Amino acid sequence: MQEIDGPLAELNRQGLAAATALARRLGLPAGDPVVLSGRGNLLVRLAPAPVVARVATGSAWSRADPFAWLTREVAVARYIADRGGPVVAPTTAAEPGPHRQDGFAISLWECARPSGRQPGPAETGAALAALHEAARDCPAELGELSTAREQVSEGIDALDRTAIADPETVAALRAAHARVLAGLAGAGSAPVVLHGDAHAGNLLWTAARGFVWTDLEETCRGPVEWDLATLSRAYQDPDAGQAALRGYAARAGGHVPGVMTLVPFVRARELEGAVWSLCMAHLYPARYREVAAQLLAMVLAGPGAQGR
């Protein structure tokens, strides 16, 4: 794993201590913790316990209530897992939480053992359709397109209050957000339970269960077009993006959405990505500074930007 620099390194150090303290509090044998990832969140395998802790570190910096995001994730993942759906399940070795420990929100998960197999675009699309099917009728209290609403507004607020972004940039981002939300009004189909961040990087192949989704932290309700826009735009090759949409349609029994149908959701996703990257560039500059600048320039030069 690439060494983390900047303020995120200290957050991760504190998060690791909190995860091990939580394991002790819950009676889990976790004397040999292993850090699996340390970017938006810290993921720690609490070895030798078969449990992975998700510690809200970087993600918490730009969210008003990180505990609420993990609460929704656990509720939806538990519902899908109970129906045999394709998710990494919350752990049964202890209460999965989320828990509050030393200032951090932490949830606990089964230790999935992924292989090196990468899903093809059509497989990823089919797996997303299976996730949506299993999540149908989930009774959890979920926000409406929280990814396009709170994720963006709270991220801009964080950039503003810390003066990381100058006032002109903050104003431009708020104006872009207003345009994006106006474009989403009435767009898309009836709300479903969304993954929220549905791309192949969040899909794992396991020998026991095949492909399973992880990182449902941005789950919410909204038009399926949000997940489909995220799915297709994650591929640099447009043909691969279309293959993913065809894989979804084949499994879901629907049609492949047209490009224009997804446009409002693509624009919202791009703005979300720009704001998220700007926040992460403060915490982890080596990885995010350059991409944040590129994404910011793109969204502020997008359709309607000249009217700000």
Task: Describe the protein in words.
The structure is a single chain. The protein has 308 residues and is α+β, with helices and mostly antiparallel strands. The chain folds into two domains: 7-110, Phosphorylase Kinase, domain 1, CATH 3.30.200.20; 121-307, Aminoglycoside phosphotransferase (APH), C-terminal lobe (Aminoglycoside 3'-phosphotransferase, Chain: A, domain 2). Helices cover 49% and strands 13% of the residues. The chain has ten helices and nine strands. The chain has helices at 7-26, 58-61, 66-82, 121-135, 150-161, 167-184, 224-233, 238-252, 259-283, 285-300; strands at residues 34-38, 42-45, 51-55, 99-101, 104-110, 191-194, 203-206, 210-213, 220-223. The strands form three sheets. Strands 1-2-3-5-4 form a five-stranded antiparallel β-sheet, sandwiched between helices. Strands 6-9 form a two-stranded antiparallel ribbon.
Classified by CATH, the class of the largest domain is: Alpha Beta
- What order do the SSEs take from the amino end to the carboxyl end, as H and E? HEEEHHEEHHHEEEEHHHH
Number of domains: 2
Number of helices: 10
**Distance N to C terminus:** 41 Å
Overall pLDDT: 93
Sheet of most strands = 5 strands, antiparallel
Total number of beta strands: 9
